[in-house]
From TrEMBL:
This is JmjC domain-containing protein. Residues 105-248 form the JmjC domain. It comes from Nocardioides luti. It holds the Pfam family JmjC_2. PROSITE patterns: JMJC. InterPro entries: JmjC_dom.
Length: 293
């Protein structure tokens, strides 16, 4: 994709990306994050020590691509910082979740997403619920096959990996996996989706990963460091709210129409879920959020 003269530290995108975002098409790009002072191995390890335990996820590095539930490959680590610093030899896979809860990384996430908006012509205000994640993994480690519900921008900092994309066999299979997501499995696959494309990404390379798009990543023979930033806009936020609404009623034995079948009903479901969420916030109730991976 052609880059713009506007230089940002994050994804270098042009105005053609607006159409690709709307169409949910994976898109390669370049970025300028390698060498950033907050993104060295030592700084990532320091952040891992700083974050609460619930914001650090550790898995076995070498595992099947379709690894299923995270619990089956999870690893308990006592010294997070040391394990990340020794990632080259620990055969492990670390995710630091919701790094935007730390002020210096919140500023970095906003700088990246605001820059993305500037180069592509998107309105920064339309890119909401911004989140950031950092990943450190050993040589030949695998990011298991899964899908996310956010617009995601994966940016490679160190090492080379192969990013694969897949598809569901049909709409029924997709609907089942979406329902399972809202029931707590966070989009992880137990069987391998059909491969549709593969991209090799090295330092300075990145890729837009659309919401509800099966994908996985395999490391080459070197340590990998990467960063992902995500956001919601009207498109995926509305679909997420309808899916959450539908799952609540499917769990009660009802059969609501899938998202996109009835736009009028979708709008009513979105209004209901927003009102429901606002009421929960006023009462001090909240659902625990999952990670991007």
């Amino acid at each position: 994709m052609t880059t713009t003269p506007h230089r940002t530290i994050g994804p270098q995108l042009d105005h053609a990306f607006v159409e690709r975002l709307a169409a949910r098409r994976p898109t390669r790009f370049q970025h300028n994050l390698p060498g950033h002072p907050l993104l060295s191995l030592d700084e990532i390890a320091r952040l891992g020590e700083e974050l609460p335990p619930a914001s650090v996820s550790v898995e076995v590095g070498e595992k099947p691509i379709a690894a299923g539930a995270a619990e089956g490959v999870a690893v308990q680590v006592d010294d997070i910082g040391a394990a990340i610093r020794n990632i080259a030899t620990t055969s492990s896979w670390f995710t630091l979740l919701h790094i935007h809860q730390v002020d210096r990384y919140q500023l970095l996430v906003d700088e990246i997403i605001d820059g993305l908006a500037a180069t592509s012509g998107l309105s920064p205000a339309s890119l909401r619920r911004r989140m950031g994640f950092l990943f450190a993994s050993s040589p030949r480690a695998v990011t298991a096959a899964h899908f996310d519900i956010e617009h995601s921008f994966c940016m490679q900092l160190q090492g080379t990996r192969t990013l694969g994309f897949g598809k569901w066999a049909d709409d029924d299979e997709r609907a089942k996996d979406v329902r399972d997501y809202w029931n707590g499995d966070f989009g992880r696959f137990h069987t391998m989706p059909a491969t549709t494309d593969e991209f090799e990404i090295g330092p300075g390379d990145g890729c837009y990963i659309p919401p509800w798009t099966p994908h996985w990543i395999t490391n080459h023979d070197e340590t990998s460091l990467s960063m992902t930033v995500t956001f919601f806009n009207d498109d995926n936020e509305d679909e997420s709210l309808v899916q959450a609404f539908n799952t609540k009623f499917e769990n009660r034995g009802l059969h609501p129409r899938r998202y996109g079948v009835s736009p009028g009903r979708d709008r009513a479901k979105v209004r209901f879920m927003r009102a429901y969420g606002a009421t929960k916030r006023r009462l001090g109730m909240s659902d625990s959020g999952g990670g991007s991976h």
